[in-house]
């Protein structure tokens, strides 16, 4: 009975995909296949599927890079196989697709993300595309966890400015980071 109720709720909200738990590169690869199949199944256009998929990958990578909720495992010769906790959801309504991701981040990361996202919201789509191309050509700093393309990719693929929030976590200096992209 509970399974049917869950399915009815997911269908009513037009949930295409939802995952909450630990993320690793292996989990992302497996889940990415499911996302590809689900977006094909719901009839998303090729361009929309590409944007959903690239934004999905970038959002899950941000969870792996920035979530403070980490779990270390021992996997063969790799003694530091870290996985991070977060959630991601893809839904649709009236022909639009929405990606939501959330994970806890430390206060310093929250401030950096807030600054980057506020800046992105102030840019036009042409500015975002230009910044993306410039980031591709720029050298990556040694302490960077990527080329700085993740949020630019999501902003470039989105049809509206990215929405975000940082919610204080009770009893902690960390904040809960929520990001929404409309495709």
Brief write-up:
This is ATP-binding protein. The protein has helices at residues 2-12, 25-41, 46-66, 107-122, 125-137, 150-157; strands at residues 15-23, 70-75, 78-93, 96-105, 163-168, 175-182.
What does this structure look like?
It contains six helices and six strands. Helix 2 runs antiparallel to helix 3. It has helices at 2-12, 25-41, 46-66, 107-122, 125-137, 150-157; strands spanning 15-23, 70-75, 78-93, 96-105, 163-168, 175-182. With 183 residues, it is α+β, with helices and mostly antiparallel strands. The chain is globular and about 45 Å long. The two termini are 34 Å apart. Strands 1, 2, 3, 4, 5 and 6 form a six-stranded antiparallel β-sheet that branches. The chain has one domain: Histidine kinase-like ATPase, C-terminal domain (Heat Shock Protein 90), CATH 3.30.565.10.
């Amino acid at each position: 009975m509970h399974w049917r109720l869950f399915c009815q709720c997911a269908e009513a909200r037009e949930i295409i995909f939802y995952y909450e738990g630990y993320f690793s590169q292996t989990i992302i690869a497996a889940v990415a296949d499911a996302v590809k199949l689900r977006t094909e199944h719901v009839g998303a256009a090729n361009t929309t599927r590409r944007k959903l998929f690239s934004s999905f990958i970038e959002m899950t990578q941000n969870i792996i890079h920035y979530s403070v909720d980490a779990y270390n495992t021992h996997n063969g010769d790799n003694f530091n196989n870290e996985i991070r906790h977060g959630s991601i959801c893809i839904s649709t309504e009236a022909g639009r697709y929405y990606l939501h991701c959330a994970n806890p981040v430390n206060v310093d990361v929250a401030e950096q993300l807030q600054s980057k996202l506020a800046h992105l919201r102030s840019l036009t789509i042409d500015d975002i595309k230009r910044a993306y191309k410039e980031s591709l050509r720029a050298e990556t700093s040694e302490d960077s966890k990527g080329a700085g393309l993740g949020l630019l990719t999501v902003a470039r693929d989105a049809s509206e400015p990215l929405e975000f929030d940082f919610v204080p976590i009770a009893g902690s200096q960390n904040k809960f980071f929520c990001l929404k992209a409309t495709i």
